[in-house]
Specification:
By secondary structure, this protein is of the alpha/beta class. The chain has 2 domains: 119 residues, Rossmann fold (3-Layer(aba) Sandwich), CATH 3.40.50.2300; 65 residues, Arc Repressor Mutant, subunit A, CATH 1.10.10.10. Helices cover 41% and strands 17% of the residues. The chain has a 6-stranded parallel β-sheet with strand order 2-1-3-4-5-6, with helices on both faces.
Amino acid sequence: MELTVALLNDYRIVVDGLAKMLEPFDDIAVVELEVGNVDVQHDVDIALFDTYGRVGMPWQQLEDLVARPNVRNTTVFTFDFGAVLVERALSIGVHGYLWKGLTPAALAESLRRVAGGDVVVSTPENQARQPDRSYRWPFDDLGLSSRESEVLALLAEGLSNQQIADGLYLNVETVRSHLKQIYSKLGVHTRTQATAKALRGQAFLHR
């Protein structure tokens, strides 16, 4: 029996990357890609919400997805773990809370379990620190990691280091470390230069 999935994120490159991860599995059909909203049009077994580029967990959107009659199960795909986050997600009706370091095969199996009625939480332990290479994110072609790219996306929105740290559930020193790597990889020296380069990138044009 075919498992139908809608993929959701604010960036086209991210949902396209998720679709690429799931492409090898004949029993999983990606029937919808939603960029920038949660207005799922099809009846789907799973709405897979990628949190890339979000300031904090998008609780209202997740609640909206859970409440939609055409979405049987809502699943989060994220780097942001913690007992409070997971507990709140499950309490509002999310059935899957999945780490982005899952391999495509492990992601597919997790989605099958969710569709079968299980509540699935994949913790970061013993998982890769970066997504599979079939998964895409803005500026990965410039050598930025998924997390560095996410920091750059929020920097381009004008957030301070502390706001970025709060939004990504990091400490501010980790954000500073990411920024140092971003500047080096982009060949820039200031926040203004990094922001300008980000805003020139097509990744930020279809949000």
